[in-house]
Design brief:
325 residues, alpha+beta, two-stranded antiparallel sheet, 32% helix
Length: 325
Amino acid sequence: MHNKTRNQKPEARSQKIISFYRFVCLIIFLSSSHVSFVIAQEKEFKKGCRACHSEQIDKWDASEVRHFPYAREKCESCHAAEHKKFTPLEKNSDKVNSENMVSNGELTQASAGTVGESSLTGFTAEQEKPCLICHDLNSEKIKKAHFSGDLTGVNCFNCHYTHAADKKGLLKESVHEPFVSGMCDACHNISAEGKIEVKGQTKKICLACHSSLLTKDDTVKHSGYDMLECVDCHNPHTSSEKWLLKKKITQICFDCHGKEEAAKHPYDVVPSQKINLDKGNEIWLTNDRQMSCVSCHNPHSAKIPFLLRESLEDGKLCNICHPKQ
């Protein structure tokens, strides 16, 4: 009897080991099936995005730096699952559709929101804070990247793209040199706790480096320049627009000037190949090489009425792009 029991022990032990491995294999199989299902869902999500945003997604895919969730097609890490329906979302009674969710390939203020505003429709995270799903603002890595500044209440979208970019850290195209060099104290006082405050009137701070914007010979001053601060039109850190503008130059101008005033000349269009751009006037075009208000007008001051870059007398201004044959 004793020998029989002894002989059965190895067999029982083998059965247990086989059962254990079967269980492990089952867990692995179920896990891999779930992962495959999730990946398929995520790819389906991005496929749905491409239905409306294919051109922009192609641009993001070709970028040097891609946000980790986007590169792994984990759209739902940031975007609400109900966005799969591809219908206007509703949250806090604000409706947002694909037309006003994205501008220039990135989230608009209507969707990204600014601190204190209730928007961010279509995000899984708390409003204004989708980045905090993954990023800890108190981590050493984040603190080092932001020169130990206090990021409380800061809107990440002001400086960073959300999907992809050509600059490290997903920074936007135009970058203010003091900002990217960590020379925060050029414009800010920084307390021991990392609290950041502007040293004084922003216009005086800006003119300390950018005094050449205005010359004594300029007899015509833009009233907007006198009435507003530089940061009303410019982002002091980064921007997707030329000259660190907060948005397209024509949109900034139309905040004060009616569109009917610009009806006599095309804007937000790429000049024809017939247009002469060989005299240094490429700088008058936007990053997208489009005509804008500042193609003909100086934005701050000028010597000629209406802030024109050249006189209309004898067609001097027009002849820059449209030379006489």
